[in-house]
Amino acid sequence: MSELQSVVQAIGDLPPMPIVAVKVLEMLQKPDTTAEKLAKTISSDQAVSARVLKIANSSFYSLRRKVTTLEHAIVILGEKTLKSLVLASSLKGINKSFGLMEKMLWEDSLGCAIGSRMVAVWFKSADPEEAFVAGLFRHIGKMVLNNLDPEKFRKVMEAVYNGEGSEEEMEALFFPYGHAEVGEAVLTKWNFSEDLTLVARYHNDISGIDPVEQPERHRLAATVNFADAMLRRLGIGQRQPDGSIELSTLPSARTLGVEPDQAEQLLEEFRCFFEKERSTFLG
User: Which end of the chain is more exposed for a tag (fewer CB within 10 A), N or C?
Assistant: First the structure.
């Protein structure tokens, strides 16, 4: 039995990819797909289409003029960015409910997507759009566990917050698999690349990806890991900030060649951007 089958057997059915995302990804594989066809497909989900336009017009992409239609946004931003925006805009829909815990997980996912893209641009460590998607999905396993049993998942988060153990230790007490294994299984089911599935699996411990045999994959994992640490340092998607995190001493910082002054400069740039554009991405 494969690990994916084992996870499905233990957890139950894994969530399907949001419908609009499935359609867009399928269309992007076809050579005859036009911006007009893509725009029509995305507009079938009003919430997703509105969010795509909002994010496209944010300072994140620094467009010279305002984009007013989906077709225009697709032409200007290109297919890679469109894929990132559709995935980010549709991910919210996999939550069965949307209370405080779901809001924290949503903020955590979008925050890491943004942070990963920034890290990739700063240190040329990965393709920015791939880094965005990798950061977006690194905790999708947490969303699945929360959907599966919100009460147990809340106990896990409370135990970690109270210092009773690590996430991995607490998840093992309440669930048959941790969020990293579940995340890998979900992205495998959704037919994402091995790079993205393994980053979901090893985002907490990048040593799980060999830096010699798989240098690009290792750097992508380091990119997401560093962004994750920025979120925890600032308290984005968390109960409170963790000021004890020294970014420049992380294994991922060594992989990326991050100097102490660079770490603090990037952290401040990320903090300012997220405060400014928070409602655009999370709304």
Answer: N
